[in-house]
Amino acid sequence: MRDITPSRRLAGVDDLLLYRLNRLSASAGAMVVRLCEGGHGITRREWRVIGLMKEGEVLTSSALAERIQMDKARTSRLISGLTQRGLLNREIPPGNRREVHLSLTPAGIKISQNLMPQVREINRSILSVLTDEEMAQLDTLILKLQHSAEALSLTLQPQLPKTQRRLGRGTKERHF
């Protein structure tokens, strides 16, 4: 009889997919945070905005919030901070004061151009333990899991309780 894998066992928190992915993200992410904060003076959330915006690209604030998968209030605070620091252009088109167009400034582009190769190298190093076939499988499996999670979210959304952020304020724990 073959061993039961953690993904099949699900006996404790250590076996849960989201917990395991969070541990991987925390281990790898710590290196990226040090590069961002120590090397470029930006937070990982700010890097998420800068890294996802392409040079010359213009996005609305709503499109950016969706792209970085963050609520509009937090995205708005990020936009304000990046704009104040001269890393993001914020323009309100005439006739539509509710829409904001965003683009990277030359300083934001420079951070992206300097930081992206370093982050790519961290990713490359982590993935170096996989064969080409395993990487292709990983990409396929991640996409499959993403689709499954999105479908499940649509199904469960009406049944799940509303979040009460006030209850969790002051903690940085994630719940799985």
Automatic annotation (TrEMBL):
Q: One Pfam family, short name please?
A: MarR_2
Signal peptide span: none
Its Gene Ontology biological processes?
A: response to stress
Q: Which Gene3D superfamilies match?
A: Winged helix-like DNA-binding domain superfamily/Winged helix DNA-binding domain
Protein origin, superkingdom: Bacteria
Domain (HTH marR-type): give its ranges.
Answer: 14-147
- One GO MF term attached to the UniProt entry: DNA-binding transcription factor activity
Name the InterPro entries on file: HTH_MarR-typ, MarR/SlyA-like, WH-like_DNA-bd_sf, WH_DNA-bd_sf
* Protein name in UniProt: HTH marR-type domain-containing protein
Organism source for this protein? Limnohabitans curvus
